[in-house]
Amino acid sequence: MESVLAEHLPPAHIAPQRLHEAMRYAVLGGGKRVRPLLAFAAGEVTGAHIEQVQHAAAAVELIHAYSLVHDDMPAMDNDALRRGKPTVHVEFDEATALLVGDALQSLAFDILAAQPLANDAASQLKMVRLLAQAAGSRGMAGGQAIDLASVGKPLDLTELEYMHIHKTGALIRASVLLGAQCGKLADSTAAALDHYAKCIGLAFQVVDDVLDAEASTATLGKTAGKDAAHNKPTYVSLLGVARARELAQELRADAHTALIGLGAPAERLRQLANFVVERAF
Predict the structure, then answer these.
(1) Torsion of CA 189, 138, 166, 267, to 10 degrees
(2) Can you give the C-alpha Rg of the chain in angstroms?
(3) I need a labelling partner for 244 at 20 to 30 A (CA). Which of 94, 108, 165, 190 fits?
(4) pLDDT tens per residue across span 261-278
(5) What is the rounded CA–CA span in Å between residue 181 and residue 48?
(6) In this predicted model, what pLDDT tens digit does every residue of 136-170 receive, in sequence order?
(7) Other beta carbons within 10 Å of 117
(8) In Å, what is the CA distance from 95 to each residue of 79, 108, 133, 222?
(9) Rounded CA gap, 150 and 144, in Å?
């Protein structure tokens, strides 16, 4: 995945050099690549060719990377550390960081439009729209807006889940469905993968909240404890650590149940569900 991303990103020596250098800094050399892994695993279920899935996976990861660059900026979370190194606006400057996010988002859709991902144009256009909706006001950006508006306010569990289904879950769902759509995707398989992805998206956020509360900055590669410091509503603040851990386990079990009918080709999806939850414990 690192090689694929490095190929898609503009070389640092091409003008505008500083912007291209900052784009590569934001994307390469760090991160768990969970979203690309999910795309590849879903592609195994539908018999997709790796050469096609890798481009869809790169597009999703670029959207994720852009969201991190913008989230870290002073107008949002104002964080100085990401993936164990200075955030983009710290290493470069705020204006460059803003442009990095804009450029990475544009590049993601350039890849989806330019690469042969599906067997027909209509299917590929559907994939472009899926990522657009996952990244926009009805997905990740909308979830972030709700998050910012919720600082210092008590949310119940339904409201918290609604926020994270959009902020975190939408892009994880898109990762799974885009990878699957690179192959032959039956309606029943799509429904199973959709349910799996929604469970994993929420589990991912629950675990992130636990890690933010319990892990060290060195372990996380980003500033620990910032949710509590900013008085943000989280699964830990609402449920406590013990119940949040239980919820993550329940969501993992639900994700595994969704995959029962998909057999051996879904094994990597099962493994990734385990990884998402067990990385905290």
Answers:
(1) 20
(2) 18
(3) 190
(4) 999 999 999 999 999 999
(5) 8
(6) 999 999 999 999 999 888 889 999 999 999 999 99
(7) 25
(8) 16, 20, 26, 21
(9) 10
